[in-house]
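for the recovery benchmark. tokens below, seq after
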């Protein structure tokens, strides 16, 4: 039996949710809004890469886990996309940004690179989302966010921790090329980090908040001086470089069990 449970939550985001739903902070709100925008296509990219390989997986347990992974990521895509209506209702536009994101993932990477290369990039993306999930749950980071968004991101974080090893194992089932794994990690990290911040900048620009001193102070605190997420990402990436690294080596069960879904 796979421990990767596909929960079919059905979020309903009222249009009365305030514009800055996370501590009245434009920075924090738009960082997470940006995640909500990019996650729809990035998860589809991950699903496509695992799906391309699923029929070649011999291990029945891994095959079942891969199916669970696809089910969970499909739900994440679907539920996050529901909040796009709220963003559009508030006047935000992100069509051109999405065209760029889709072009890079589906026209350049998926079409021009090998299935194994795309799987390696997917492993890199999953390694970063595992760290973000750990950070969010470990620090109860969303404690002051508005309830439906808090629940959305915490549910997503729990499932990221549950399926953290699946894409890694799928890649290992086809190749254990160490350099490919490292290159995929690097590209996966660059893609998520750049698109996440680019989306945030686009939303801040539309709010005329790009020159707001508080926004950039919070930006520095989050990435470098207080929450130090950039530093944590670097340490996490270095850990990934160990020859005997495996995502399951770190125990996240206590974080998963702490969340009521
Ligand atoms: Fe996800
Ligand atoms: Fe994931």
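predicted aa per position
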């Amino acid at each position: 039996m796979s421990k990767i449970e596909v929960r079919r939550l059905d979020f309903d985001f009222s249009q009365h949710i305030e514009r800055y739903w996370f501590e009245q902070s434009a920075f924090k709100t738009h960082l997470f809004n940006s995640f909500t925008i990019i996650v729809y296509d990035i998860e589809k990219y991950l699903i496509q890469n695992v799906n391309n390989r699923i029929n070649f997986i011999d291990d029945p347990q891994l095959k079942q886990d891969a199916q669970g992974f696809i089910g969970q990521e499909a739900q994440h895509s679907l539920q996050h996309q529901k909040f796009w209506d709220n963003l559009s209702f508030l006047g935000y536009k992100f069509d051109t940004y999405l065209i760029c994101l889709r072009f890079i993932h589906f026209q350049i990477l998926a079409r021009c690179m090998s299935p194994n290369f795309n799987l390696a990039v997917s492993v890199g993306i999953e390694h970063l989302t595992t760290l973000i999930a750990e950070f969010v749950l470990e620090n109860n980071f969303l404690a002051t966010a508005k309830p439906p968004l808090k629940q959305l991101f915490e549910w997503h974080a729990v499932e990221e921790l549950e399926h953290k090893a699946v894409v890694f194992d799928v890649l290992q089932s086809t190749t254990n090329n160490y350099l490919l794994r490292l290159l995929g990690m690097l590209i996966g990290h660059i893609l998520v980090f750049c698109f996440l911040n680019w989306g945030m900048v686009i939303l801040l620009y539309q709010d005329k908040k790009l020159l707001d001193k508080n926004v950039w102070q919070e930006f520095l605190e989050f990435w470098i001086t207080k929450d130090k997420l950039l530093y944590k990402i670097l340490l996490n990436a270095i850990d990934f470089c160990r020859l005997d690294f495996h995502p399951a080596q770190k125990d996240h069960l206590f974080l998963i069990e702490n969340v009521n879904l």
